[in-house]
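Long-time lurker, finally posting.

We've been working with Tripartite tricarboxylate transporter substrate binding protein (Nonomuraea purpurea) and I want a structural starting point before designing mutants. I don't trust myself to interpret raw outputs, so I'm hoping someone here can both generate the C-alpha cells and explain anything notable. Sequence follows.
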Amino acid sequence: MRAAVLAVLLLGVTACGAENANAGGEWKPRGDVRMIVPFAAGGGSDLAGRAVAAALEKAQPGLKVTVENREGGSGAVGYSAMLGKKGNGNYLLATENAILSLPLSGQVSFTRKDFTPVAKLAEDGGILVVKKDSPYKSCSDVVNAAKGGRVSVGMSGAFGVDNVIFTMIEQKAGVKFQRVPFESGGELVPAVLGGQIQIALLNPGEVIGQFRSGDLRGLCVTTDKRYAYPELAGLPTAEEQGIDVSYVQFRGIFAPGGLDGRERAYWEAAAKGVTKTAEFQKWLKDNYLQQSELYGDAFGSYLDQVGTDLEPLLKKSS
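Top reply, 14 upvotes:
Generated this for you. Predicted structure of Tripartite tricarboxylate transporter substrate binding protein:
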C-alpha cells in the first residue's frame, strides 16, 4: 500500500514538472505571456514592445504574448509592477534607458539587478524637433536662445533618455532649459505642434510622419554619426553643430528577477530568434533603428557600463 501511494505521488510530481518542459527537459512558459510596457501607448517604447512581442510569437510558434501598458512615474510604475513577478517566467518587460536613469535619479529603490537581462536588440537616437514656423534652424540656435532666455523642452518621462540628453547639453553648453515632462513620445508630438513646448526630443519613428508632411522640422540628431536612412541623412549631429553630446537609447527585453537557469536559457534563445523575423526587420526599417544585439550576461555587462558612465552626470544634476 505504501509503495502504491509513493508511486502515485511520484507520478504527480512528474506530471506537474512536465507541464513546463518539453521532451528535452527544457522549460517553456505555461499559457500566455505578458509583456509589460512601462510607458503609454503610442510612443517609442510602446512601438518597441509590440514589435518584439509580435516577433517573439513568430520566432516561437505557439507562443502568445499579450502587451500591457503600465505607464506612470516616467516608467517607474511599469518596472515596479515587474518587481512583483519575481520568479515568474511568464512575464517580460520592454526595457530601455530608464532602467538606468531612474535608480540614479533617486526616485526608485530598485536597480537593473532586480530584473533578469534577456536581450538588447536595437538602438535609436534622438532628434531635436520644432514646428515648421519655429525661428530655430539648428541646435546651436536653441542653445544660444537658452543662454539669453527661456526655452521650453518636452521630455518623455522626467528621468528617462530625454532628461539625460538635455542634461548633457546643459552641462556642455552652460545653459538651463525649462523642462515639461510627458508620459510618452506620443504626447510630445501634439504638444510641440500645439505650441505647449518649443522643442521636443523624439525618436525617428515617432516623428517621421510629421517630417514628411512638413509640420515639424529636425534640428540635429544625438547619435555619434548621421543617420544612413535617406530621409534623415541631411540632419547634422549635435557635435557637428558644436555641441559635444552623443547618446542613444537601447531597446531590449527584461524578465523578472529570480528566474532559474532553464527559464533564462529559454528566453535568451527565443530573443535570438526575434531579429531573424520579418516583423522585427520591418519595425527596424519603419522606425529608423539600428540592429544591435547583446544577450544575457553580455547585456547585463553593457547595462553596468552605461550605468557607470551615467552616474556622475545624473548625480551632478540632481
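Before you design anything, note these points.
The chain has eleven helices and eleven strands.
The chain has a mean pLDDT of 89.
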